[in-house]
Amino acid sequence: MPEFIPAAEERFARLDGLPMRSVGAPGSGWDAFARPVREIFAHREMLGLLVRRDLKARYKDSALGFLWALARPLVQLAIYYVVLGHFLGAARGIPDFAVYVFAGLTAMGLFQEIAVGGTGSIIANSGLVKKVYMPREVFPLASAGSALFNFGVQVVVLFIATLLVGKPPFTLDFLFVFPSLAVLLVYALAFALLFSAFNVYLRDMQYLVEVATMLLFWMSPIVYSWQMVASIITNPILLEIYTDNPLTLAVLGFQRAFWVAGEDLAQPTHLLLRLFIALLIGLVLLLVSHRVFLRLQGDFAQEL
Prior knowledge:
The structure is a single chain. 71% of the residues lie in helices and 0% in strands. Helix 5 runs parallel beside helix 9. It is built from 15 helices and no strands.
């Protein structure tokens, strides 16, 4: 015991001499961006474990397993193709309507899954938030990781569908998939970070995001064509406002990449430039959302 006390006092003295630093607090300048990135990278194994846990939990004890990742988009495709496409006549003027719809569903499905899943991710992992320190951003990022897995499965099916109709996307327009995917990820992560933090303090936020993503779905040319919108909205300013919606641009980019049958139809001008402008604006929004997230995360454990 006499030997233990001096050793303990020495450790306490060393600890007392260390500078105080708020864990997870937003820094200033370059450190405000670099430190969170370093922390997330240092916890990359935990992020991978969370992604695998989400995927295993979602399809646990199911006979078909990961094949259920196709169930919802394929059922949606069947409903839209039959009911809207043929019963209501939406397929008129849209060649290869099934490929057109599935391209839009794949793009919008990724955004919806990241935004909705990310919004509820902090609440869903409240046990870890209260007991273990890790960058809180890993929870929305884990939702994005599992969403990207489902997205990858759907892209494979979409590619197979283009082969079945005899119009594979072996053109330069396929490159539109990359800026479109970047726009979807940036805006979805910005929404997930911002609203996951708000959701801790106001639990209605998750339901609000679900309603908002549903509205965004119908505001994008997925089950109807942009050409139809252009024929209805005669005011050029209103048409530009509609077209420059980042999700609309991303959906149009995916359709441009995979829907070869629509290459002869009228398209928005300068689509690639519009996508890059939307991406730059989205990156600013992502930085702002992350900054707000860092400021609110300090009281997550107490609120939960």
